[in-house]
């Protein structure tokens, strides 16, 4: 199974939100929202910043995001659950 980085999961989540779960106006955000996006690739900066703003992605207790590190199944599940809660599809 191919591993997925946190930045790629952020891109996938934002694509799902744009498709119809969450109004696009909520996704308007600058990549400077959180300094953790500076380590994120250019194509994932806006998605990562939007997920940070919406509380879908959180850094560690020390404030580190580590966007290039691989996402565990548990992290991916929590991020997807947060997105679905934001969309009002689950409680």
Structure description:
There is one protein chain. With 91 residues, the protein is mostly helical. It has one domain. Helices cover 44% and strands 0% of the residues. The protein is globular, with a radius of gyration of 12 Å. The protein contains three helices and no strands.
The SSE string, one letter per element, is HHH
Report the major sheet: none
Integer-rounded radius of gyration: 12 Å
Total count of helical runs of at least 4 residues: 3
Helical residue percent?
Answer: 40-55%
Q: What's the oligomerization state? A: single chain
Number of domain modules: 1
Average pLDDT metric: 76
Q: What percentage of the residues does DSSP assign to strands (E)?
A: under 5%
Number of E strands: 0
Low-confidence stretches: none
Judged by helices, strands and strand pairing, the structural class is mainly alpha
Name the shape in a single word: globular
The termini sit apart by: 30 Å
